[in-house]
Design a protein that fits this description.
Length: 445
């Protein structure tokens, strides 16, 4: 094969070349079929090659693809802004558009700091975040991320924002009820704010369901309500990072809606345009925008591709498609079915310690010993082995490692397009089971 000039995730490895996709299926150029069991990077929310989205993309491209946000607004971006205001809770009515989840979280970080500065407060510029979290790869976003593996190399350049643990019910201490454990974890935020000093803390950021570092970890009941109380008590903004959980993925419009909590900002990406074009955003409350409007009247953030009409038209078509086909309800219903089938695997297979998730965002954690919940060392690469075996058998599964070594286990994410049927879920489970059994056998040799 001709040499490649592209820097790929793993240098030296040969990747199959994609040909096309349809629904939950992808096909490479050799004609091999794959079930997209994780929507790529939890992105292809409504499946591949949906006609309505492709048509909207073409129609928009015929009139205008790019117009710079400092010169023009566009119908597509205005309509998308309105739609997001309808979807978002409370007074989260204003949207700042960017192109990736990292830009969205870093923009939220900047807006939080600016919000306090506009009120004459120049010390409130720290963000508190959690270990076992991922908020993006750019330096600001990585500063907020508790993704140990991704931080490692850059630690000297990063702010030490991760300060508290995320709730991890599978490994909660013995003797605490789920609710007590949730309160204990949430109260860590109060301790951290008091340690840093409330006058220094601009915001707290968290994923409603922990994704890339731990594999769909759902918080205990009451956790986010207590987080909201603590943020209010100390004048700290609460940012819900919904880049993975947003737009119906968990069976509600936003993950945080499961607990009836209204954040001050919501960041979205991935499923927002379902992978058809790069698109992400930071959704902000009326209160924050009022303060900024009265002050410098401009948010100090933005990128060349922010609010481009092409991506806005695509994202609008994705959200319209979700509404028209009641896909949020389907995500809840078929997500519960997926979780039930994964729980079946957890009951049956010694390697699977826990199946967990919310809506169509599920995870499996692999353990060495089911009774003691002893983890594999990261160097044993168990989840990577399962992912490779599933890939070989035509199923895409997403890795979820990178939390604190020896604390966060070896996990994978199952998050197919929310259009998946129960019959297709059965096929997915069959392949996954074969892959896990094959890895179990290899480990015993
Ligand atoms: N925030 C969360 C919760 C994510 O899961 C991710 C990506 O996985 C990001 C932010 C970063 O998004 P992107 O990779 O589009 O920059």
């Amino acid at each position: 094969m001709e040499r490649s000039y592209v820097i790929k995730p793993e240098l030296g490895k040969t990747y199959p070349v994609i040909s096309h996709g349809k629904g939950i299926y992808l096909y490479d150029k050799e004609g091999k079929q794959y079930i997209d069991g994780c929507s790529g990077a939890v992105t292809a929310l409504i499946g591949h090659a949906v006609d309505e989205v492709v048509d909207a993309m073409y129609e928009q491209a015929k009139s205008i693809s790019f117009a710079y946000r400092s010169h023009f607004s566009s119908d597509a971006v205005e309509q998308l802004g309105k739609k997001l205001a309808e979807w978002a809770p409370g007074s989260l009515n204003w949207t700042f558009f960017v192109s990736s989840g990292s830009e969205a979280t870093e923009t939220a970080q900047k807006i939080a700091i600016q919000y306090w500065q506009e009120q004459g407060n120049f010390t409130k510029n720290r963000i508190i975040s959690r270990w076992m979290s991922y908020h993006g790869i750019t330096m600001g976003a990585l500063s907020m991320s508790g993704h140990v593996l991704r931080r490692k190399r850059f630690v000297p350049l990063l702010e030490d924002y991760p300060a508290i643990t995320g709730p991890y019910p599978y490994r909660k201490p013995e003797g605490l009820s789920l609710e007590e454990y949730g309160m204990q974890c949430a109260n860590e935020l109060e301790t951290a704010i008091l340690r840093v000093g409330p006058e220094q803390v601009a915001a707290f950021i968290a994923e409603p369901v922990i994704g890339a570092t731990a594999g769909a970890v759902v918080p205990p009941p009451g956790y986010f309500q207590r987080i909201r109380e603590i943020c209010d008590k100390y004048n700290v903004l609460f940012i819900a990072d919904e880049v993975m959980t947003g737009m119906g993925r968990t069976g509600k419009a936003f993950g945080i809606d499961h607990w009836g909590v209204v954040p001050d900002m919501i960041t979205i990406g991935k499923g927002m345009s379902a992978g058809y074009t790069p698109m992400a955003a930071t959704i902000v409350t009326e209160e924050i925008i009022e303060v900024i409007q009265k002050g410098s009247a401009s948010i100090m953030a933005g990128h060349t591709y922010s609010a481009n009409p092409q991506s806005a038209a695509v994202s609008l078509a994705v959200l319209n498609y979700i509404e028209k086909n009641n896909l949020i309800e389907k995500s809840a219903e078929n997500g519960a079915y997926l979780l039930q089938r994964l729980q079946g695997l957890a009951d049956e297979l010694p390697l699977v310690g826990e199946a967990r998730g919310l809506g169509m965002l599920c995870g499996l954690e692999f353990v060495k010993n089911k009774q003691t919940k002893e983890t594999f060392a990261l160097s044993e690469n168990v989840s990577a082995k399962v992912i490779a075996k599933a890939f070989e058998k035509g199923l895409l599964v997403y890795p979820a490692v990178g939390g604190i070594d020896g604390v966060a286990g070896d996990s994978v994410i199952l998050a197919p397009p929310i259009t998946i049927t129960q019959e297709e879920i059965d096929t997915l489970i069959g392949i996954l089971k074969e892959a896990i059994e094959a890895v179990s056998q290899e480990l015993q040799q």
